[in-house]
Specification:
Helix content of chain A: over 70%
Order of helices and strands of chain A: HHHHHHHHH
Largest sheet of chain A: none
Radius of gyration of chain A: 20 Å
Shape of chain A: elongated
Strand content of chain A: under 5%
Oligomer: homodimer
Distance between the termini of chain A: 54 Å
Structural class of chain A: mainly alpha
DNA sequence: TTAAAATATGACAACCGATTCAGGTTTTAT
DNA sequence: ATAAAACCTGAATCGGTTGTCATATTTTAA
């Protein structure tokens, strides 16, 4: 009900292998169903149908439709972050990491479009969890930028502002090129042109002064 | 129903001064109601109550709850664009215009928070109109960047990619600093630090090479 | 093997909100 | 002044959804 609720937790975690399996099936089905139908159009019926269980079974593991959305947001967010972190190891400086990170993000959203919809809809079902998702992300991002500043890899500046700007930049590029322009996401190197444009932008900005392109 | 519907238009535009007034009252009430309660939680009842008219009156001017949302998106989008255009005249080059534009955008969203919510929720009620909103915005933005490139005000590069990146940048900065951090939006020059950070970012990027700060 | 604990079932109660409609009231135009 | 058009009313309809419950099945553990 409230847009800031957070408490009443799962009625009880599964105590059996079978239970765990069923719970997972439902969670996955919810991801797919919310992803294609959207949170509001998707009924609990649709979820359980997709999971191949009865209506009532849903309530053995989740107290409400709202709760399973929260669960999903945390789950998907965790997976995304893990994926991005993995894709960025091996880069030698912050700017290289930014490029790799953007590429990985675009690819990931292209492969997991549900994430976008679930997350964005969650915003209006439970503000708090959405806000926390991005604040968490931003904290980590800011820290990395601060470290890079200290190491002399990037110019000094307000890194919190920059972190939010960069998150927005990635978000919108993904929306446009990974989700909407499906043609643009075909092939191994589909996002290279975008990453290249952004690489130049992140390195040199838009002003004409910097003369070398490397 | 469908997420891509677009047709059945208003049942009939008001033919009287009174009718026009009532229609306007309802539209304004819808903006407020959607803005605070959200599209799904807001009932037609809430809207008509806020407007001070009977339920049935709603359907004299709008065929459905979905249609009034579409109307609202176009209306609010139009107003925003007009405002931004007005705030940017008098700037002498693209980079200055970017700064002024960002400042104006942050201020505007801080003053009209409903816009954000209405627009973002519209995305899941009628994809098409949301997409068109941003595509339209992006087209104009890209054109302006192309002009600036031609004039030698900014470095060459893919301006469509840049347009989407810049829209995302503004969007997220507004979300964080104009909508969430309410403290940050108090006072005349509340957003100056942000604009300053972004000014440096847009001009010089993040790399260390460019040495002068101006 | 068997009783207790977990899980699963699916019909159904209780509720909610969008839209309709038959009839009143106000405005317009002649 | 008065008929026609426009506008307004709000109770009732109607479709649909969440969450419950009594019962049945499966798994666990002794």
């Amino acid at each position: 009900m409230s847009t800031t609720t957070q408490a009443p937790q799962s009625p009880g975690a599964p105590k059996t292998a079978r239970g765990a399996r069923t719970r997972a099936k439902i969670l996955k089905a919810a991801e797919d169903t919310f992803g294609t139908l959207g949170y509001h159009r998707a009924g609990v019926t649709d979820i359980t149908k997709a999971a191949g269980v009865a209506q009532g079974t849903f309530y053995t593991y989740f107290t409400s439709k709202e709760e399973i959305l929260r669960e999903l947001v945390m789950d998907l967010g965790h997976k995304l972050r893990a994926h991005l972190a993995a894709q960025v190891i091996g880069t030698s400086d912050r700017l290289e990491a930014e490029e790799q990170g953007l590429r990985a993000f675009l690819q990931y959203l292209s492969d997991h479009p549900s994430l976008y919809r679930v997350l964005q809809e969650a915003q209006f079902v439970d503000q708090a969890i959405y806000q926390e998702y991005y604040e968490t992300f931003a904290r980590g991002y800011t820290d990395m930028l601060n470290t890079a500043t200290r190491k002399g890899e990037i110019r000094p500046g307000n890194n919190q502002h920059r972190a939010w700007a960069l998150m927005g930049l990635s978000h919108f590029l993904a929306l446009k090129y990974a989700l909407w322009d499906q043609r643009a996401s075909e092939g191994e190197h589909a996002f290279d042109p975008i990453v290249e444009t952004m690489s130049d932008f992140l390195r040199n900005g838009l002003a004409l002064n910097g003369r070398d392109k490397s």
